[in-house]
Write a structure and sequence with these properties.
215 residues; TorD-like; 8 helices; 0% strand; globular
Length: 215
């Protein structure tokens, strides 16, 4: 297998594992996580996944990530100056453009959904390269960079700070891993939550914008 394709598949597995750590641990969660653990070779990632299998419970999930949890994991919590309807529309446009259908019922701005989308984009890029479709691979690569920079980075760092206060070590390690990829959160000119939740004036649509680099 081509070295670049192998690397992309490894990156896809990493993003998928990280996303599973923020999902509700029910249904097929345990089977899905076990399968991804088998697909990764990085010792730190494997340790995170194995710790999650041992320690993660419904109660811990709700205490951390539930509606009244100590670690909010929705982008809207950290997005200043953007109306909720705009944010949901932009994220839905990203997902629909690439045919991404999350397997868990969470809001489009939930951290688990966003991490899963990055995994999906890495798979799309790998498949395009395998099929000798370089243009499609570039589209997926640029979308991954743009999405990580404009959406995931906004909540990765503040989520990590909350994880360091309240979460077990495997989730703190996961948060640090995500921030290592995204870098620090961009600073907004708006106060956090200044108009979050205001659903008025939804006549304009935000666009995804153009990306120019590879993640």
């Amino acid at each position: 297998m081509d070295v670049q394709v192998t690397k992309l598949l490894s990156e896809a597995a990493e993003w998928r594992l990280l996303g599973l750590l923020f999902e509700y641990p029910g249904g097929q969660w345990r089977a899905n996580l076990s399968a991804v653990i088998d697909a990764v070779t990085d010792p730190e990632l494997r340790a995170m996944g194995e710790a999650a299998l041992e320690q993660f419970t419904d109660g811990l999930h709700f205490a951390l990530f539930g509606p009244a949890g100590t670690v909010p994991v929705r982008e809207v919590t950290y997005q200043g100056g953007v109306q909720l309807g705009y944010l949901m529309s932009e994220l839905s446009a990203y997902y629909e453009a690439f045919g991404y259908e999350p397997r868990v019922e969470e809001a489009p701005d939930h951290l688990a959904i966003q991490l899963g989308f990055l995994s999906f984009l890495k798979l799309k890029q790998a498949r395009a390269l395998s099929a000798d479709e370089p243009a499609q691979a570039v589209v997926a690569a640029e979308a991954a960079v743009e999405f990580a920079n404009t959406h995931l980075a906004l909540q990765a760092e503040p989520v990590l700070h909350r994880l360091e206060e309240f979460a077990p070590d495997f989730l703190v390690a996961a948060g640090r891993r995500i921030v290592a990829h995204t870098g620090p959160a961009p600073r907004s000119e708006f106060p956090l939550g200044s108009i979050i939740g205001d659903r008025g004036d939804e006549d304009e649509m935000m666009c995804c914008g153009d990306a120019s680099a590879a993640l």
